[in-house]
Structures are given as structure tokens and as C-alpha cells.
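TICKET: design request
STATUS: open
ATTACHED STRUCTURE:
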């Protein structure tokens, strides 16, 4: 079997059903899918949405971007259907929303995907420029507030789009690649705060080093070192943000991967906090009770917390109640801090390549 090199790619998105919680919205836009990669494949759309669910539990508040008068801007990104630079004048962004342009094309060599966060140009008042660059987050290098980006998948790949089981040994798992690339769009390996935490060949962010038990070795500036291990629901797994994916395997976002996003500047709620307001209280119990015995929720996804699925096992039951009770803290505070990050001014991109494991 072979491994495919995971690389930078664009932010993506989908929504979970509405619940009384604050969370980011990841909105996919298929208008640049000029090769009809997704239009002819509803399974690919479903797998992409499932990948986005791993990130919709983030609770950062992103300011709306609404141009007008002298305040104008142009969003720039890699066209997913051609690879050339695309731009949209005065794109309107609702609050807490990221827009990701997705599509497919034949990629060079053994690349699985290309992409990254979008760039921009802007003019207007200083307040407007700050909104476009930071979206209400702290100025660089204190946080990260992207508008979105783009993602292109290799249309000449034998993909596995199923969600219920890993792929056979001769197929590449679309869900794993989508999750990995969305991590890059959210700043993993692309944001200023990510690079601000690199010393030599190690990532030194405080949350990741606490989870890992020391500085985390890097394969390259954008990825954990290959074979770096972490856990998903307490079970060992190679981290999703290493640089390769073994054909026939599936990798979900691990505890270490989430820790890396926390060091970039993203916030997510503490265990038991279904309302994503930083406290674990009676309102969270109500959501748990309202969804009791509901099954089929996003597996191993922080998005599942919004439904009371605190242990992320696809079912709301007594195990989730125990987590709520153990973390009950009506005066509480968010468990994960928001470290620094620089605003991205230019689009970033890279590719996925295949090779035999050493």
C-alpha cells in the first residue's frame, strides 16, 4: 500500500442542524467546480460535509464582512477547477461564517489535493481594514480570523466516499483528506501563529506540547512528523495532520490535532458545554435531555457536542450525562485558550503526493 502526502488546502464547510449554540458555519460554494467533480457525485458532497462537521463546534465569533461606500475588498483564492488565481469583488460574509470554494481537477503527479486559506486586497477606513483582516479577532499576532479559501481534489484519483467504514486497500479515503485539508484552511501550517510556535523542527505551542508531553516534531513546517501518534475517543491513531495518508486507511482529527488548532487561536467548548458558551450548566443538561437516545450523530466530532453527544460516540445516552455532571461548572470558563496568530494576506497552497512508506 502507499501513502499520500497531505498538504495545504482550502477551508470547507457544512452545517449541522440548528441548536441553541454559538459555532462557526462552514459554507461550501460549488460555483467554481467547473469540472463537475461534486455536481456528478452526491457521495462526495456528503463526505465533504461530514469532514466539515469536525470543525463546526469551534466557538470563535467572526465579524461579518459587509462592504459599502468607500469600504471595499476583493477576496482572492486558487480556482479549484483550474489552479489559477480567482477573485470576487465585495464578497459578503455573514457573521461566524467561512466560505470555501471547492471543486476538482486532474492534479500533477501523485497529488491528492491542493488548497489553502484565501487572500485579499482591501481599501477603506481603518476599522473596515481591521474587519477584513481580523474579523473581530485580536490583531496579529494574537489570533486568526480568515474569510475562507478554496480546495481542489484530484479528479483522477480512485476515491472512497463511504462514511461507515475505511476504504479498501487500493482507494484513498476522501473523508480523511477533507478533514486534513480543512485543518490547513483553518491555519494549521498556514497561519502566522502556527509559524510563531515553531522552533527548529519542533512545534512548541502550549496546548499541543501539553497534550503530546513535549515539543511536537515536524515533518515539514506544515505537518506533524509522520507516524506521530495521538488518540481518537481514547483509541490510538496516527495524527490527522501528518504529511501522509496510507491508502486503504482512515484518519480522523485526534486530540493532538485539536490541540494544534487551539494553539493557532481557535476556541472550542469544554466537555459538557452543549451551548458553547464556556459554561457547563442546566442549559446544557436540557440539550442533552432533548436529544437523549438520538443516534447517528457525527462520530468523533466536536460538532456532536452541540447535541449533547459529549463522548462523541454517535449516541446521546448516560455516558454523556456523566461527562456533563463531572464538568458541571455554571460559573465556568472555556477550557482552551486562544493563542496568537497572524492574518493571512496571500493565498497558500500545496499538494498531496503518493509514495511508498519507508
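STATUS: resolved
RESOLUTION: sequence designed for all positions
ATTACHED SEQUENCE:
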Amino acid at each position: 500500500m502507499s501513502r499520500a502526502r497531505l498538504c495545504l488546502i482550502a477551508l470547507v464547510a457544512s452545517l449541522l442542524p440548528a441548536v441553541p449554540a454559538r459555532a462557526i458555519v462552514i459554507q461550501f460554494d460549488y460555483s467554481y467546480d467547473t469540472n463537475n467533480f461534486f455536481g456528478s457525485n452526491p457521495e462526495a458532497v456528503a463526505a465533504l460535509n461530514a469532514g466539515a462537521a469536525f470543525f463546526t463546534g469551534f466557538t470563535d465569533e467572526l465579524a461579518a464582512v459587509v462592504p459599502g461606500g468607500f469600504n471595499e475588498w476583493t477576496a482572492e483564492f486558487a480556482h479549484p477547477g483550474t489552479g489559477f488565481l480567482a477573485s470576487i469583488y465585495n464578497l459578503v460574509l455573514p457573521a461566524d461564517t467561512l466560505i470555501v470554494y471547492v471543486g476538482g481537477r486532474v492534479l500533477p503527479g501523485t497529488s491528492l489535493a491542493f488548497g489553502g486559506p484565501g487572500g485579499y486586497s482591501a481599501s477603506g477606513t481603518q476599522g473596515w481594514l481591521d474587519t477584513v483582516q481580523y474579523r473581530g479577532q485580536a490583531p496579529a499576532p494574537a489570533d486568526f480570523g480568515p474569510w475562507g479559501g478554496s480546495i481542489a481534489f484530484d479528479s483522477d484519483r480512485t476515491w472512497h466516499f463511504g462514511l461507515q467504514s475505511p476504504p479498501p486497500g487500493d482507494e484513498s479515503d476522501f473523508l480523511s483528506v477533507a478533514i486534513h485539508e480543512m485543518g490547513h484552511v483553518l491555519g494549521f501550517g498556514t497561519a502566522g501563529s502556527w509559524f510563531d510556535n515553531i522552533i527548529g523542527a519542533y512545534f512548541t505551542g502550549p496546548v499541543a506540547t501539553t497534550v503530546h508531553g513535549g515539543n511536537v516534531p515536524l515533518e515539514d513546517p506544515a505537518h506533524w512528523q509522520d507516524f506521530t501518534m495521538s488518540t481518537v475517543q481514547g483509541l490510538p491513531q496516527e495524527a490527522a495532520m501528518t504529511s501522509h495518508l496510507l491508502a486503504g486507511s482512515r484518519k480522523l482529527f485526534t486530540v493532538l490535532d485539536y490541540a494544534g488548532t487551539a494553539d493557532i487561536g481557535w476556541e472550542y467548548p469544554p466537555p459538557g458545554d452543549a451551548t458553547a458558551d464556556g459554561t457547563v450548566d442546566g442549559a446544557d443538561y436540557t440539550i442533552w435531555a432533548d436529544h437523549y437516545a438520538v443516534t447517528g450523530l457525527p462520530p468523533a466530532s466536536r460538532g456532536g457536542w452541540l447535541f449533547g453527544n459529549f463522548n462523541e460516540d454517535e449516541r446521546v445516552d448516560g455516558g454523556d450525562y456523566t461527562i456533563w455532571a463531572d464538568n458541571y461548572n455554571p460559573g465556568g470558563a472555556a477550557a482552551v485558550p486562544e493563542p496568537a496568530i497572524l492574518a493571512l494576506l496571500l493565498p497558500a497552497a500545496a499538494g498531496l503526493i503518493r509514495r511508498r512508506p519507508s
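CLOSING REMARK: The helical segments are 42-52, 126-134, 174-185, 192-196, 206-212, 255-264, 282-290, 318-326. Residues 3-268+341-355 form one domain.
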